[in-house]
C-alpha cells in the first residue's frame, strides 16, 4: 500500500480499466493506526491506543477521560448514559419483536383465510398485508414442500 508513512491518506474511486476518476463525490480517509507523529493525528492515535489517561498527550481529551473514569460525578454520568443507551436498545428490540410477531400473526391469519377460500382483497383488508404478500402466501400453500 502506498503512503504507509503518512498519518492519513485520502482515497477516491477510479475506474480500473483506464484509471480515470469515478468522481461520485465519495471520499475515504484512512488513518494510519500505528502512526505516532507530533501532529494532531499522531497525538490522537497515541491517545486511542494508550492504556490510561496518564499517557495521553491531548490535554483536553486526557481531562475528559479522567473526569469520566476517575471522579464520582463522571462515573455517575457515564452510568446514566449507558442506561439511556440500553433503554433505547431494549425499546428498539421490543418494537422489532412486536412487529415481527404481528407479521407472523397476519401471515397465519392469511393462510387460514386462504384455506377457506376467501378472496385475496378481503385477506389484504383483514390482515394489513400487501396483495403481493398474500399472493406469495397463496403460492407457498399450493406448492408441495
Give your account of this protein's structure.
- The protein is mostly helical.
- The chain is 59% helix and 6% strand.
- It is built from five helices and two strands.
- The protein has helices spanning 40-49, 59-70, 72-115, 120-127, 131-142, and strands at residues 8-11, 28-31.
- The protein has a two-stranded antiparallel ribbon with strand order 1-2.
- The longest helix is centred in the middle third of the chain and has 44 residues, at 72-115.
- The mean pLDDT is 90.
Main features:
145 residues; mainly alpha; two-stranded antiparallel ribbon; elongated
Write the layout of secondary structure elements.
Elements lengths: L7 E4 L16 E4 L8 H10 L9 H12 L1 H44 L4 H8 L3 H12 L3
Antiparallel strand pairs: 1-2
Helix pairs in contact: 2-3, 3-4, 3-5
Gyration radius (Cα, Å) is 28 Å
Query: Helicity level, as a percent range?
Result: 55-70%
Instruction: Give the CA-CA distance, first to last residue.
Output: 52 Å
Mean pLDDT: 90
Class per helix and strand makeup: mainly alpha
Question: What kind of assembly state do the chains in view correspond to?
Answer: single chain
Major sheet size, sense and barrel closure: 2 strands, antiparallel
Shape: elongated
Number of strands: 2
Q: What is the N-to-C succession of helices and strands?
A: EEHHHHH
Poorly predicted runs of 5 or more residues: none
As a percent range, the share of strand residues is: 5-15%
Query: If strands are numbered along the chain, what order do they take across the biggest sheet?
Result: 1-2
